[in-house]
Design brief:
By secondary structure, the protein is an all-alpha fold. It has two domains: 131 residues; 150 residues, no CATH class. It is 66% helix and 0% strand. The radius of gyration is 23 Å and the shape is flat. It starts with a helix and ends in an 11-residue tail after the last helix.
């Protein structure tokens, strides 16, 4: 069927609008993170733990203190984030309707889907206000990847190459893209965990870096978040690799051929398996495990960009002109 250029243009418009709204959300959340107080204001209390009765006029209604502007701005930014996600998902759905296929046929579409998965898993796991400061760091790689997707990696709406015309495309690539998005959250959590260790809770060190670190969740919470997300992403990504092997047998007559894409995917999977093992091993569960987790995420990025763009192989379906 011919490409619907009108719907394709709406898809591109929704994608660009999503980037603009994501950037607006990022600015608001960075503002909150940069200027928010690190501790709540003190209140005058009596020896019994209540409010000092001498400071209260009988019959007077005590109003709640007004929230600081930075906190209100951050709360508004988190609400606007749902608008950005809706526009992002709309761009993916419209791309599918425009091309009459599942919208995962090139690097532009894969990167967009992975970023959407990262933000959605973030909305599930980072909904508590104590994790609000993490959004400034999570949206940074999301914005960078979406910018690259909309510029360097962008491909016009078109049918997929004959090799991708298979029912395995939506199954295999969707699972892998979701797993990649989950690992993005995990990688950011481990990076912040290593940074937070330099400024443990209760540290009196001054300076901008110390103040910023204390606005993050404690190191234990960040480490636990990285572990939880990896537990979610590891079986998803592993299932994607297995499904890819099944598709390879149907398409090329073999389950595994050590193609560059297959090889680096396997290396990334092994690194994440090593992280989970190290996380449960005494003496490795802190910084060493976190570095292994970051190495796994670097392997994912290497697989996405270097393997698809630079290295020639059976999986060279980047869709770049």
């Amino acid at each position: 069927m011919p490409i619907d250029e009108t719907i394709a243009s709406y898809s591109d418009l929704a994608f660009k609008s999503a980037i603009v709204v994501y950037a607006l959300v990022w600015i608001m959340l960075v503002w909150q993170f940069a200027v928010a107080r690190t501790a709540p204001p003190r209140q005058l209390v009596t020896a019994g733990g209540g409010v000092d009765s001498d400071s209260v006029t009988p019959g007077r209604v005590i109003e709640e203190p007004k929230r600081p502007f930075a906190e209100r701005l951050g709360a508004m930014g988190f609400s606007v984030l749902f608008v950005a996600v809706a526009l992002h998902l709309l761009s993916i759905v419209l791309r599918g309707f425009a091309t009459h296929r599942f919208p995962l046929g090139n690097m532009y579409e894969f990167t967009s889907m992975s970023c959407a998965a990262a933000v959605l898993i973030g909305l599930v796991l980072l909904r508590e206000e104590r994790y609000r400061g993490m959004w400034a760091f999570l949206l940074t790689p999301v914005l960078i990847l979406l910018f690259l997707a909309g510029t360097v990696l962008h491909a016009d709406a078109a049918p997929v190459v004959p090799a991708l015309k298979s029912y395995w495309l939506p199954v295999h690539v969707t699972v892998v893209s979701i797993g990649s998005g989950v690992f993005l959250v995990s990688g950011v959590a481990s990076l912040l965990f290593l940074y937070r260790l330099r400024q443990p809770a209760g540290s009196e060190s001054s300076g901008i870096w110390g103040n910023l670190a204390r606005r993050l969740p404690d190191a234990e919470s960040l480490d636990r978040l990285a572990y939880r997300t990896t537990i979610i992403g590891f079986p998803i990504f592993g299932a994607g690799v297995i499904l890819g092997a099944i598709w390879a047998e149907a398409a090329w007559g073999r389950f595994w051929g050590w193609d560059p894409k297959e090889t680096v995917s396997f290396i990334a999977w092994v690194l994440y398996a090593a992280y989970l093992h190290a996380r449960a091993t005494s003496g490795w569960r802190d910084t060493k495990a976190a570095w292994i987790n970051i190495a796994g995420f670097v392997a994912m990025l290497f697989n996405l960009f270097i393997i698809n763009i630079v290295v020639s192989g059976l999986h060279s379906y980047a869709g770049l002109n």
